[in-house]
Structure formats: C-alpha cells, structure tokens
Amino acid sequence: MSRMSREDRMLFYSLLPFASIVIAIFITLFISLVENSIPVLIREGINFIVSSEWRAVEQDPKSEFYGILSPLIGTLITSIIALVIALPLSISLALFMLEYAPNSIRFVLSNLIEVMAGLPTVIYGLWGLFILAPLLRDYVMYPLYRYLWLIPLFSAEPVTPTTLFTASVVLAIMIVPFMTRLIVEAYRAIPVKYKEAALALGFTKLEYCKTMLSLARPAIIAAALLGWGRAAGETVAVCMTIGNSFSLTLSLFKPGYTISSLIANQFPNAEFYHYMYSALYGAAFILLLIGLVVNSIAMILLVRWRELIHGDR
Amino acid sequence: MEIDKRIVLDKVFTAIIVMLAILALTPLIWIVSSVVINGVKAIVKAGIDILFKPPTSPLSQSLGGVGPALLGTLILMALTTAIGMPIAFFTAVLATEYPHTILAKAVNIVIRTLLEIPTVLIGMFVYSLVVVPMGRFSAIAGAIALAIVLLPYTYTYIESALSSIPREYREAAFSIGLTRIRALMKVFVGIARRGILAGMLIGLAKACGETAPLLFTIGGSTRVYFTGIDQPIDAIPLLIYRYALTPYENYHALSWAAALILISIYLPIFVIAKVLIREVEM
C-alpha cells in the first residue's frame, strides 16, 4: 500500500466503501444464518435432520418440534432425478449443436438456449403447473402406477398432478439449457490439436464424439454438479409443482416439500411460533452448506481440467 | 465387416443424439409458445387495461389488469439499478485496478459464493435485516434483495470487461502521464463500455424475473399502486406465482398475461446485452 502514489491511494480509498459493502453483506448474511440457526440446532441436535416430525404448536414452545428429514430428502430426490433426466439430454443437445446442426440452426439454437437458461424460473413453474403436470399425471404417472406399482417409487396413486415427480421433471427441463451451455463451453475449450488428431485418424462421428466427451469428462461432471446445485436451490418453480406437503415416502407420485419450498411456504407463518423461524434458518443453512460443498467440488474440477487440457501447450 | 459395424454404430448414435436433442428442445419451445398463446389470449380479452388496471375480483367476468404489479416491477428495477450498479461497478474497478490487495481477493471469493446462494436465502436475510427492523414490507427491502442477486452477475461481467483491456492500452495510458483515476475515466471505461453495459443489463434481466427474493420482502397487494419506497409494493413475478396457485380461472389467465409481459421485459434487455458482448468478441 505504501508503494502507491498519493492519487493511487486516494482512488483506492474512495473505492473501498463499495467493496467493503460487498464483504459486509456477505459476512452479515453468514452470521445471520448461523445465529438464527443456533437455537434449533442446540435444542434438537441431530434430530433436526434425522427426524421427519414437524410439530408447530402456537402458544406452547415446549411441544414444538421441527425435523427436516422429509424436505431434505425431497430436495435430494427431486434434484437427483432432475439431473438424471437432464444430463443425457444436455449432452445430446450440446453434441447436436456442435457436430450435427448446420450453421444457421446452430445460431438459432445457441440463442434459444442462452435465453432459456436465463428465463425467470417462475415461468417454468407456471408452465409446469398448468401444462405439464396434468399431462404427466395422465400419460406418465398413472401408467407407471398401474403397471409398476410393485416398485416402491411408483407405489402411490397420483391423486394430484403436482408431485415430487412433477417437480423433478420441471427442474430437469429448467437445468437442461444451463448445463448444455456449460458443456458447449467445455467442448469448445478442447484444443484444436486433439480434434485434428481425432479427425486425422479417420474416426467416425461416434468415435470422434466419444473421444471429445472423454477429454471433457471432468468439465461435464462439473456441469452436472452445477446443474444439480441449481435444481437443489430452486424455489418458485418447485413450489408451484411439488404440491407442498409433508410426507416421508419413497413414492414419487405424492406431493412433497424441498427445503426451499418449505421455506417459501412456512416462513411467512414462522413468527407465530417460537422455534419455527430458527428451524427454517437451520434448514436454509444446511441447504447452503450442501450447495457450497458441491459447487466447490465443481469449481476445483473445472480449474484442474483447464490446467490439464491447456497445460501442455 | 469391421467397417460395416462402425458405420452402423455411427448411424445408431446419430439417431439417438438427434432424438434426445429434439426431446430436450421440445419443452423449451413448448414453454415459450404456451406463454405466448395463453398470454395473448388473456391480453386480447383484457385489452389495454391489462397494463394499467388492478385485477378484478376472482369470479368476475372481466379480467382487469396487472397494473400495480407492472408498476411495482418497473420501480423495483429502477431502485435495484440505483443500489446495485454502483456497488458492482466500483467493486469491479477496485478488483481490476488493485488485484493484489487482500480486499480484491476477498471480493472475488465472496462474489463467487454469492452467485451460488439460493435466492430464497437472500429473501430471508433481507427480511431479518431490513423488514423486521422497519416493521413492514417495503419496495426498498425488495430492491436491496434484488440488488444482492444482481451484484455477482453484474460484477463478473464488468470485472472481465475491465480486465480484458489489452496491456498495451493500459501502458499507453500511464506512459502519457495519466494518473490511474484519469486513465480509468478517460480510457479504460471507454474501451470496456460495451462489456460494462452488458453486465448491467444481464444483472437487470436477472433481477426483473426473480421471485424468491421478493417472497418475504415486498409483501405487496395486487391492488395497491405505488405509495412510497418504504411501503409494500407488488411485482410481476410474485403475481404470477401467487395467482397461478389460486383456484380461479381469471387469475390463471392474468398470470399467463403477466408471464408474457415479464418475457417482454426480460427478452429485450437480455438480447441487447448479448449483442453488446458479441460485438466485443469480434
């Protein structure tokens, strides 16, 4: 700092407040999460995440109890199913754009994907609720229930169109453009020499694509993790399609909760209870921790991959 | 024989890729077209009132409009811009001009983390930080939440625009004796202006469509127009969310109309931003 000229220092000090605000927001956010989570974590300990009991009692804090197992599992199930559906679709769409589509179509597609990746998620929710959910119930959930009800996942009759399964499909559709964009980016980052080498060997498209995909594998895994993080953190699109109810069940055809949809639905009532506010903060804190761990893994994978693939240039 | 097998496999692979790609694209096109079709239907029914009038009662024959929510969204966008842009811009300047300071490094980590925080948490945070002390929901609380959402996006774009200024220009600016502050104002910002503008627009496009940060912050009624920045306000995304979950036909129609209006706000901002960046790349 002392090596800076006077004017340099002046500029630095006048920029300081803005950067400090950013840091301050972050620290306050973190503190407020921790501080507000502590009461419920101290009171319930590990039961907070391994119990699925949600007892909200007005006027009687002693009998309140909040276990978030069911929303926690709801978050994991919906986001994992969404990823399983979305990953093959995203990889295919990326390959189609890069290797098969003519230039004019590629231009249209890449713009469509960009736009859809940034589209307000409430619109995915709206479409999922009114258009997709009834169709899914009649043409996917009912047939699966009728013929495969022995499998626990499909064992419940889909009474309502909004279920864990519906939310999973909507999330899958929502993360496809996001993941496709990341995969396309990774694919383009592969140095030309590998592509030329593969082509020079007389590879067919299949062999070529297989080689490229295996070169980009860490980046694709990172894209999948980031897509998963999106799905796990999404709020409104899930709220609109999941049915919002507590049910600890293996069946996908029942309404459920995710952590973020639980927060969206219960937070407005939390002030009527003694511990609910803290319970929801605790849930948010756990969601954030899971998300940050997964995102960090994805980032590390990406950085290492970039070094690896460009390292020997 | 070997060659035949390779070619057959290749054809099968191509067919699978094309099928899955079409399967991936269908919902995307379907979403856009159903918003356009249902939105236009509702807007035709409601007429120009859709932009100005408040909604009618649930079972009435006419639709009314989404006037208060639309006004609310525009005001929130303006407030968010006023709060978020200066912070994003000047923080990005600090990070590019003083990259070796601890502060710049901390900012980069913080921004990357903010980008990944589920937006509903930002809503909760602003609720405890602003709404509770103020004692009521307000436009300003919503704008603060949206500004936190916008911040990492806008920052990232501006930071990369400023740091991609070629070395020669930087050195040239300093070599003619410009101080850092003058070089910044007269040269760097000029060179990076498209990227900076694009970053602001991307952030704004993101902020205008966010619902989750508004859930616990603006608390608006769909019938009340703007009454002050310290008062509750409504917004289009929140209206879509709330009305879609009601059992009333005419509210469903209004939420489709609102979705079309939301896309018509989001799309131009987003497209202009992308055009700006593309020209930079060329």
Textual characterization of the structure:
- The complex is a heterodimer of chains A (313) and B (282).
- With 313 residues, chain A is mainly α.
- Helix content of chain A is 74%, strand content 1%.
- Chain A contains 12 helices and 2 strands; from the N terminus they run ααββαααααααααα.
- In chain A, strands 1-2 form a two-stranded antiparallel sheet.
- Chain A is globular, with a radius of gyration of 24 Å.
- The two termini of chain A are 36 Å apart.
- With 282 residues, chain B is mainly alpha-helical.
- Helices cover 77% and strands 0% of the residues of chain B.
- Chain B is built from 11 helices and no strands.
- In chain B, helix 3 packs across helix 10, helix 7 runs antiparallel to helix 8 (180-191) and helix 9 (193-209) runs antiparallel to helix 11.
- The chains are: A mainly alpha (313), B mainly alpha (282).
What are the secondary-structure elements of chain A, in order, as H or E?
Answer: HHEEHHHHHHHHHH
* Separation of the first and last Cα atoms of chain A: 36 Å
State the largest interface.
A-B, 83 and 89 residues
- CATH fold naming of chain B: MetI-like fold
How do the strands of the widest beta sheet of chain A line up side by side?
A: 1-2
Round the Cα radius of gyration of chain A to an integer and report it. Answer: 24 Å
**CATH class group of the domain at 70-271 and 299-309 in chain A:** Mainly Alpha
Strand content of chain A: under 5%
Report Rg of chain B. Answer: 23 Å
Q: How many helices of chain A does DSSP assign?
A: 12
Q: How would you name the CATH homologous superfamily of the domain at 70-271 and 299-309 in chain A?
A: MetI-like
CATH topology type of the domain at 70-271 and 299-309 in chain A: MetI-like fold
| Structural class based on helices, strands and sheet pairing of chain B | mainly alpha
- Helical content band of chain B: over 70%
The CATH architecture name of the domain at 70-271 and 299-309 in chain A reads Orthogonal Bundle
Overall average pLDDT of chain B: 90
CATH architecture of chain B: Orthogonal Bundle
GO molecular function (chain B): phosphate transmembrane transporter activity
GO cellular component, one term (chain B): plasma membrane
Keywords (chain B): Cell membrane, Membrane, Phosphate transport, Transmembrane, Transmembrane helix, Transport
Transmembrane segments (chain B): 12-32, 69-94, 106-127, 139-162, 183-205, 253-277
